[in-house]
Amino acid sequence: MEALLENLTRFCEVLAVARSDYVSEWDSRTLHRAFQWADYFQHICGRFGANAPVREALERRLRLANESLSRNFEGYRFLSFEALRRCGETLRLSLLGNPAVSQSLYPRVLAGLEDRASLEDLRRAVGQKAAARVLFEAGAASRSRTPDELPGADPVARTDAALLIQYLNDRQRRLDSSGDRERLVEVALGKLAGSQLWPVLAAVLTDDAGGVAVDLVLSWLLGNGGQLQAFCTCVHCILLTEIASRHPRFRAAYLQVLTEWGESMEYMPSGGRGWMSSLPGLDWGKLLKHFSSLIKGPKAVQEATESTLQTLKAQDGDFNEWGISVWTDLLLALKKI
């Protein structure tokens, strides 16, 4: 019993180090051993949690260890018996929330999350603000743009997207059919509430190293007209332009959405109201803003947008005067910007 209690003291020290600057000295072998200790004590708690004498002995040792470590580690958080029951998750979140952890260890920490937890467990991890900050900084070097350059691409969404990408990439390897992969995406995205979904999808679609997961998410988005309309409505047009520059399939679908928005416009000369849409929340200014962003985008996006507008203008009578065709007015307005 004394050996078990001594090991518990050592594990409390491991958790304290995981939350401190000293963790910078850890390598992959040390990380592996730390998770082995976590597995061991989760097993002990599961086996002896209902054994009153053993539990009391463990709780006494926890109190002693907590008191000792609080004197040596500034900001030390006490470990309870209930926390010991889930000490693997506690260890992972401590590492994710500590900027002193070597970036080379993050794949192993995330792999541990994937292997040991459900997607709901991953989302709880994403909820930790420190984890969001650290994971974003760890992946920033591999991305062509920073969050400040892409409106709406905040660190939390990027972190959520990174975990979603890993989840989908790992799971899809075990599936045989495209139907199974579609259901996988449905289940994964079903965990995200509506307001959370769009920023995460945008972050996935602008990830440079997303692999198969990006194609899965894009196919899901393009396969549902209602979802695509909502996505284009809720995501900032600059971010939509970035996605259009990366994915030709999205570019074509986005231009089709904008075409439908334009077709909903009717010119109302009375009262100087101009172009009015039958769609809720859409007005002339918003439509112009989306097209303006595309025109200012990369060459391929710019050319596709101009070609679409010229084709629509020709189909609508090829007028050159204001107030007759929404497509003519868009082209004239864009020339002034």
Structural description of this entry:
This protein has 337 residues and is mainly alpha-helical. The protein has three domains: 1-91; 118-222, no CATH class; 251-336, Serine Threonine Protein Phosphatase 5, Tetratricopeptide repeat (Alpha Horseshoe), CATH 1.25.40.490. It has helices at residues 2-18, 28-48, 52-72, 81-85, 87-96, 106-116, 119-126, 129-140, 155-172, 178-190, 194-205, 212-222, 225-234, 237-246, 248-263, 284-295, 299-315, 326-336; strands at 265-268, 274-277. The protein is elongated and about 90 Å long. This is FA complementation group F. One of its GO terms (cellular component) is Fanconi anaemia nuclear complex.
In round numbers, the mean pLDDT is: 82
Tell me about the largest β-sheet.
2 strands, antiparallel
Beta fraction of the residues?
under 5%
What are the secondary-structure elements, in order, as H or E?
A: HHHHHHHHHHHHHHHEEHHH
Radius of gyration over C-alpha positions, nearest whole angstrom: 27 Å
Query: How many structural domains does the protein architecture include?
Result: 3
Low-confidence stretches: 114-123, 125-149
> Shape from CA axes?
elongated
Give the spatial strand order of the biggest sheet.
Answer: 1-2
Kindly name the structural category.
mainly alpha
User: How far do the termini sit from each other?
Assistant: 78 Å
Organism: Latimeria chalumnae (Coelacanth)
InterPro entries: FANCF (IPR035428), FANCF_C_sf (IPR038505)
GO cellular component, one term: Fanconi anaemia nuclear complex
Pfam families: FANCF
